[in-house]
Amino acid sequence: MADLGDVPAFPSSVTRVLDALRDPESSLAEIAEAIAWDPGLVVRLLKTVNSAAFGLRRQVDSCQHAVSFLGRANLESLLLGLAVERALPPGKAPGFDPRQYWRSAARRASLARLVAERLEPTTQAESFTVGLLQDLAVPVLAHARPDEYGPLLARWRRSGERLDELERQAFGWCHAELGATIADAWELPESLVAGIRNHHGQASGKVHAAVHLVAQLPESDSLDAIESLVETARSGYGLTPEWTRDALRKSGEQASELVELMG
């Protein structure tokens, strides 16, 4: 971390909202009021909630309505995603395209929510968040170490090798460990920090099944990579190939819309 410079700053306005969300004494009206202090956050929250990904039959037109509709867990997941997008370095770097990065992250998050709904319904919100944030250290590394990390990203895409293994060969640690360190510095919940740290490991009590599965989702849509994920979903989690392919299609559609909303 010392070699990379300062940790990206987490938006203070979102921290205040998260504090209110995690306080059982806070009412929904108080949470909505905390959000209202950040007009930019209000606009993005309402745009996202009203997107096709949420499938609403009528429009949500206020913070309080959005808070009531989403509930605390879903609202926290959504706000964390919007806040991290603000915090991470903007713009391109060697080997790194922010639009491609966020599309992959949004696709993982959407697929994780669908898989969790099928396998562990109580983990949907958290699986979505970890799916979105599990690679949050990649843009940090791409901008902080462009001469080293850019060629490594290029090799990863060219060779099909695992990114975390290439990073350990080059640096002795991987993006999952660094991402967890950043998330811990931001004082994110321990379960999210653990999910980010362990998403490339074997499924265990520290990472939800959906998170472990979507960590294998490739950036590209190569047939071999997709079929490998479909087979893992079948053999490891009992998901039929037909269901997984349909979930991949849905998550791709939702991801495209989420990326547009994120700008």
Radius of gyration in whole Å, from Cα?
Answer: 18 Å
The H-and-E topology, N to C, reads as: HHHHHHHHHHHHHH
Q: How would you characterize the largest beta sheet? A: none
Number of separate strands: 0
Structure, explained:
This protein is mainly α. The protein folds into two domains: 1-87, no CATH class; 91-263, Hypothetical protein af1432. 69% of the residues lie in helices and 0% in strands. The protein contains 14 helices and no strands. The chain has helices spanning 12-22, 28-36, 39-49, 63-87, 98-119, 124-133, 137-144, 146-159, 163-171, 175-185, 190-198, 209-214, 223-237, 241-262. It starts with 11 loop residues before the first helix and ends with a helix. The model has no long low-confidence stretch (mean pLDDT 86).
